[in-house]
Amino acid sequence: MMIYKNGRNIILNVPNAIADRAVLKEAQVLDLADIGIKIAAHYGKPQDIEWAYRGGEFFIVQARPITTLG
Asked: Cα 6 vs. chain centroid, distance in angstroms?
C-alpha cells in the first residue's frame, strides 16, 4: 500500500489484519463509478482511469483508452 507521510509517498506491506478489508465505502464506490461514466462519455468510449483519494475528494490522475477490450 502507498501512504502519504511526512511530505512524501511511502510504500508499505499491507498488514494481514486489513488485507481483505474494503477501503472505499459504498457511496464512494458509486461516486467513483459516476466519475468513470462521465469520463467515458467525454471521450466517447470506456477509459482506463487512474485516481487518488484524499481529504474526501477523488482526483483523476490519468485517463486513457482501454486497450484490452476486443
From this structure: 22
Three cell numbers, residue 65: 483508452
Say what the pTM is: 0.71
Instruction: Identify the CA nearest to 47 among candidates 57, 32, 27, 58.
Output: 32
Please name which of 66, 70, 17, 15 lies closest in space to residue 43, comparing C-alpha atoms.
66
Q: How many residues does the chain have?
A: 70
φ, ψ for residue 64 (rounded to 5)?
A: -150, 155
Joined together, the cell numbers standing for residue 58 give: 477523488
Per-residue pLDDT of 21-37, as tens digits, reads 988 999 999 999 999 99
